Amino acid sequence: MIALLAASSTTAQTGADFSDDVFWVWLVKAVAILVFLLVSVLIAIWFERKVVARMQVRPGPNVHGPFGLLQSLADAMKLLFKEDMTVKAADKLVYVAAPMIAVFCSLLVFAVIPFGPAVWIGGHHTPLQLTDFPVAVLYILACASVGVYGIVLGGWSSNSTYPLLGSVRSTAQVISYELSMGLSLVTVFILAGSMSTSEIVSSQKTLWWFIPLLPAFVIYVVSMIGETNRLPFDLPEAEGELVGGYTTEYSSMKFAWFFLAEYINMLNVSAVATTLFLGGWRAPWPISTINDGMFNHGWWPILWFLAKLWFFMFVFVWVRGTLLRFRYDQFMKFGWKVLIPFALGWLVIVAAVQGLRQFSDLNVRTTLFVLAGVVAVVAIAAFFVPEKKVAATKPRRGPEVIDPFAAGYPVPPMPGQTLPPSPRKERAAAAAGATAGSDPTTPEVHGG
After folding, report:
1. How far is CA 73 from CA 39, 106, 255, 390, in A?
2. What is the first-listed, main subcellular location in coarse terms (predicted)?
3. pTM of the entire structure?
4. What domain range includes position 105?
5. DSSP assignment, residue 335?
6. Domain tally, the chain
C-alpha cells in the first residue's frame, strides 16, 4: 500500500502554498472558520426543522423572524439562561470536561479543509485554508476519534444507568463505523497519491473521485451518518430506550456543548465527503469549462464548496425524516457484516488495479474486464449455491423456549427465542374440550 501511494504521488498536483502567510492572516482565517461553524449550526437547526416539516406537511418555525430564521437564536438563548444543574453523585471534573472535549475536537477538523484556491487577502497571496500537511486526513480521523471521548466520559461521569449505556453504545458504534469509513477513504489515497486535503482536491481537476470510487463513496456516506449518531443510527441517545442517552443528566450550556458538537460533526463529515469525493471547491461540469475555468478562481469556489456541503446536510435531514431507528443488534450486524467486508473487498480491487497500472504494462481496460469477470463469478457462486445442501450440513433447531420471569421481571424474547404456551390458553382449551366432550348433541365419530 505504501508503495502504491509513493508511486501515485508522482502524478499528484502541488498542494497549497502557505509561504506568504503572516500571523494576522492565520488569525483572520481561524476566526472566520469559528464564526462560519457557529453560524452554520444555527442555520442547520432551522434548515432541519423546515425540511422535516415540509416532509410532514406542516409549517415548521414561522414566528420568530422572517420564515422563522430567528428560532435557532431563540433556542440558543433558552439554553444559555436555563438553570444549570449538576448531579451530586457525578465525577465533577470529568462531568464538566466531557462536553468541552466533544465540542473542541469538532472545531479542529475544519483547520485542514480547503474552501478555495489561493486569493489575495490584505496584500498576501494565501490559500482559503488554515493549514495543510501530508497526513491531513489522518488528522481528521484522529480528531473524530478523540471527540468520542467526550461522549464516553460524559455518560460514565454522570454515574447513572442510561447515560452509561449510551456511552458504551457510542464506543462500539465509533469502532464499527470508523473502520468502514477509513477503508473507504484509503481508496481515495491510492488514486490521489496523497493524504493532503489540498492535493486530493488538485488531483480531481479532470475527474471527481466519487465516479470511479462509487462503492467507496456510498460506504462513506452510510458510515458518516453512523459516525455522527444521527437517525437511523442514533443508538447512543435513543430517547425511546435510554431517555436521552449520554446527555440525560446534562442541562443548560453543558447540554448545549454536546448539541453543538453533534451539528459541527455533521458539517465536518460533509466537508470531508465534499473534499475527497466531490472535487472540493471545484465547480461542477460544465460550469468549470466556462471562460477557461474562470469559476474555479478567486472567491467563486467558496460557493461551490458550500453548495456541496449543504447537499450532504440535506441528505442527513432526508434520512432522518425517512427511516426508522435500527435495533441495536441490526445496527452492529450491518456495520461488521455488510459495510466492513464490502469496503475491504473494494479496497483490494482498487489496490490491484492501481498496482497493475503502476508496475506493469497491462492495459487498464483489460484489467478491468478481468476483475469484472472475477466479481461476476464470485457473485454467481454466492447467489446460486444450493440452499438445501447448505441447510443439510447444519441441524435445524426450533426456537429456544425461555422463562420470561426467570430474573424476577418480564423479559421479551430475543430473535430465535419463544415464550412457553400460555397457561390461561391451555386451561381455556381444556375447558372447551371438556364441554365439547360432555355435550350430548356432539356426533360420535367412528374410525373406519
Report:
1. 10, 21, 16, 60
2. membrane
3. 0.78
4. 15-383
5. I
6. 1
